[in-house]
Design a protein that fits this description.
single chain; six-stranded mixed beta sheet; 2 domains; Rossmann fold; about 15% strand; 15 helices; alpha/beta
Length: about 325
């Protein structure tokens, strides 16, 4: 049976104090990732770009931050029941690893279309996988059945205060490492990373604008902002598989009130940006990770002359299925 106290905490909007506590909790189990620059991309964009390399994070993505914060925030009694989630890959991998670090079980509901590399990684960290149809509703229904049977603690991939606070540690590090950023840009899917980014930027650098980058083929966040209400898209078709989720109730609060803008990139632009990062920066990144650079290059007038922090979110790509 789920523990209601933990659930109530998870659905209470986090504050920057929660980000501070998360940084302390996750320090042993995550990397303080480096910030890299590229003269090529500066010239192409007309901006000064600072890339926060979460593709070099534990489990290959920023998701480790939120997962570790949630898992190590459980009481011993709660942890004994294990953890469960739904994920197309990176959050599932991160949760499986975090659970392994604490010595508890993790079950991950994954769409049967998930990249093979991410499926193998979840299993490699000791996670148990339950497959479902590639629809958001199917993910949730399958997870509900898993939890009803096992009593595992649900650690959602984004719509959770513990996860958002953990993700906020990424921008907090970036702002400490690079002074006077005019803009921080990060991808948006379910909204956990951008919500944590807002928390850290508003606390540490209030003048810094927060911009979300979204695939045009999965633009429910942009359309939600335009409509003034949260819109749900069940199965968008985009190469950026990590950004297919729609905003949650909690993350919508941050996006609707605090995100300065949401800009879009087309599929071919995302693939081109991904390839450029591989070629010019010698970094392995996945399509979702390339969306911010694709957005910057498409909307260069927004970023020209600015100091821009760019969160490179992950590098878990299937090397047998590269988009080029």
């Amino acid at each position: 049976m789920a523990r209601p106290i933990a659930f109530e905490f998870a659905m209470t909007p986090p504050t920057f104090d929660d980000v501070r506590r998360a940084r302390e909790r996750i320090a042993t189990w995550t990397h303080h990732t480096p910030v890299l620059t590229s003269a090529t991309f500066d010239a192409m964009s007309g901006a000064r770009l600072f890339f926060k390399c979460e593709n070099l994070q534990k489990a290959g993505a920023f998701k480790s931050r939120g997962a570790v914060n949630a898992v190590f925030g459980l009481s011993d009694a709660e942890a004994a029941h294990g953890v469960a989630t739904h994920s197309s890959g990176n959050h599932g991998m991160a949760l499986a690893r975090a659970a392994a670090c604490r010595g508890i079980e993790a079950t991950v509901v994954m769409p049967d279309t998930a990249p093979r590399a991410k499926i193998e990684a979840v299993r490699g960290y000791g996670g148990h996988i339950v497959f479902c149809e590639p629809r958001n509703a199917a993910r949730q229904d399958t997870l509900d059945a898993v939890v009803a049977d096992s009593g595992a603690n649900v650690v959602p991939p984004y719509d959770d205060a513990r996860v958002i606070a953990g993700q906020g540690s990424c921008a907090a590090e970036l702002l400490e490492d690079v002074a006077d950023l005019d803009i921080v840009i990060a991808p948006i899917g379910g909204g956990g990373l951008i919500s944590g980014t807002v928390l850290s930027c508003r606390a540490l650098s209030p003048a810094t604008r927060v911009i979300a980058a979204e695939p045009a083929n999965a633009d429910d966040a942009r359309r939600s902002l335009d409509a003034g209400r949260r819109l749900i898209e069940d199965a968008p078709d985009t190469i950026a598989d990590g950004l297919k989720a729609s905003l949650g109730e909690l993350t919508w609060q941050f996006v609707s009130r605090e995100v300065d803008d949401i800009l879009l990139a087309e599929e071919d632009e995302i693939v081109a940006a991904m390839r450029l990062i591989w070629q010019r920066m010698k970094l392995v990144v996945e399509p979702s990770c390339a969306v911010p650079l694709a957005t910057i290059l498409r909307h260069a007038e927004v970023f020209a002359g600015r100091r821009v922090g760019v969160i490179l979110t992950g590098g878990n790509v299937d090397l047998d299925r590269l988009p080029w």
